[in-house]
Amino acid sequence: MLRLRKILLLKSPYVILFLVSCLYLALAQIMPKNSLYAGTEETIEGYITEMNFDGAKLSMTIKGKEPFIASYYAKTEEERKKLQQELSLGDTVLLTGTLNHPHTTKNFNSFSYQEYLARNQIFYFFQADSITRVKKNQNILWCIKTKIKNFITSFNQNAKYINTFVLGNQNDVEKEVRSNFQKIGISHLFALSGTQITFLSDLIQKILTKRKKSDLQKLIITQSILLSYYLVIDPCAAIDRALVFQFFFSVNKTYDFHISPFQLILLSLSVLFLWHPNYIFDIGFQYATVISVGLILYSTKKKQHSKIAELFFVSLLSFLFSIPISLYHFSKINPLSILYNLFYVPYINFFVFPLSIITLCLPFCSPLLSLFTTFLEKSVSLLAKIPFGELVFAKAPLILYLFYAFLIAFLLLGKKKKLWFLLLLLTLGCHFIAPKIIQEDRLFMIDVGQGDSFLIQSEGKTLLIDTGGKMEYVKEDWQKGKEKTKSGTYTISFLSSLGITKLDYLLITHGDADHAKEAITLIDQIPIGKIYYNEGKINSLEKEILKEAKQKKIDFEQLKQNQILKLGNFTFQVLSKDLEEENDSSIILYGEREENTLLFMGDASIKSEQELLKTYTLKEIDFLKIGHHGSRTSSSESFLAQIKPKVGLISAGVDNSFNHPHQDVVKRYQQYGTTLFSTITDGMVEINFTTRKIKTYMGKQLSF
């Protein structure tokens, strides 16, 4: 044992192992990741590892040759009930249907769901036409998981919190609740973490100490209980980190090895990198690791303080350590989270988390858990409405976030703390005001899938033309799932990455859902100066938008033909008029900036084009937002012959059911020498009028 202690106290083995793990991590990222499936399979067999019903939709993660995500839509309410009763985790199923590569919106500075899945060795979605159970699960572990999950659903409203804080599954938590937690900077609390693992470990240790168990017995029993717990919860990188850290620190303490915290950290990270190198990309893992490592290293140097002072220091340090991660991923930080954490960390760790476990074991405690979670939701919702605190920073090169990490490390662990603190504040200040000083005139075609959304910036002013949104079809109650929003939140995230904190103007060309539905989300999430909408009758969606605007005290105005709008260096004129039909009444916007001309056609049809040709003598257009996503109901020969567009922008969804853009229309534009950009092939497109350059998400660049 003495010889083992001497070996374990050496620093070099930990450093060497860590360097080897980092090398392995780097190699794992550059190694090609190929699927074991050809992509043409129409029948696949595998067992269910995750399963969720949302209305008529059944979503599953299936483990066949490799994991893949499958979805199936029940055709009747009876079929859905039958599937809910028959299928369970671990069941082997036979699926028939089609394999597809996962699609994701392709916007600058955005989260790529496709890359996320690939890192987890998931390369395909399977759209199932039929599903048959071929073998009932016999694995005891899957049986236990299924029984626990089914039991939790019986807790109704409390089920989402028990799932979150006991199993680590946040799927049932409403989007608005998660958004509010993120706004006030405490989203890291809305998940299982090292704090909860430490709480459980300490609780077990206290019970065993009272029963006068030896240190070795306490170690074995504690680790066995934690391992058993780990086997029934949902996979989570942050929990894996917590368990590995807890194990090595516990062994070190039990056997009095006196290995330094720094060496234990290197050992723990080495194991994690070798075990699952893609954990490095997991945001929860990044937060948990950086904050816990920082606190461990700093705690070895700090002086003892009172409990309150210690809690404040932990909150302050957690905020500082999280700055580079929050800015890199979300372009936002909230300094008030230092104060919020002082309350919510103990509130969740000492009340909500323990009550979630107690309620699972003693269901009669459910009303008490409801009381605490209701207060949690309402208080967080109230704080999220505070119009200050959240600071938005434009997206910057990776080197800047590494520089933040460097400054924070020297601030907390080095000397001359005042100097490093001033440098940190100066860097943050420059980063924050940069977009307000360096202003460019830009047009972005945002990839919102099957829909339209265009952002224009000039002299610090912003105009968003349409918002995108998913078109919904009439469904029966049993078919309806939880309300989801995509393009609105993507747009807000993109605006944040540009350092934009408000929209001066939101223009809704017409009331179709794929152009306007996410306006509700935007109105709720970001300040808007004024909303413009089209002339003529308004539909139910537009009425809902205007109702929300009125409640938020946002000005709105119905645009008339020939009305002029100014936005910095851009001048726009409304060319459209009320033609009764929704698409034909789309706002058509003609714009000029110095020598460049722009034309936004909304969903205008050939009928609208003919009206334009009769009413106006149109110039040749430099940049055309092609009407109706490139449908053959627009872009007539006579219209193109008049405007001769140099650049055409088509916003449409990958594999959309409308066959947009139509190939006849594409050929028509090609005949006129129009350079076409489409969100399908190019993703987001940025036209920079200041630098006179065009670039796309997929890497295409050209000058004009």
Level-1 CATH class name of the largest domain: Alpha Beta
The fraction of residues assigned to DSSP E strands is 15-25%
Runs in which pLDDT lies below 50 for 5 or more consecutive residues are: none
- The CATH architecture category of the largest domain equals 4-Layer Sandwich
Number of self-contained structural domains: 4
Task: Say how many strands there are.
Answer: 23
| CATH fold group of the largest domain | Metallo-beta-lactamase, Chain A
**In percent, how helical is the residue content?**
40-55%
Report, as a whole number of angstroms, the end-to-end distance: 74 Å
Mind telling me the C-alpha Rg?
Answer: 28 Å
Backbone shape: globular
Placed side by side, the strands forming the largest sheet appear as 13-12-11-10-9-8-21-22-23
Overall pLDDT confidence: 90
Q: Could you please describe the fold and organization of this structure?
A:
This protein has 704 residues and is of the alpha/beta class. It folds into four domains: 1-32 and 193-290, no CATH class; 43-138, OB fold (Dihydrolipoamide Acetyltransferase, E2P) (Beta Barrel), CATH 2.40.50; 302-328 and 393-438; 442-472 and 480-703, Metallo-beta-lactamase, Chain A (4-Layer Sandwich), CATH 3.60.15. 47% of the residues lie in helices and 17% in strands. The chain has 25 helices and 23 strands. It has a nine-stranded mixed beta sheet, covered by helices on one side. Strands 14-15-16-17-18-19-20 form a seven-stranded mixed beta sheet. Helix 13 (307-330) runs antiparallel to helix 16 (398-413). The longest helix is centred in the middle third of the chain and has 25 residues, at 337-361. It is globular and about 95 Å long. The termini are far apart.
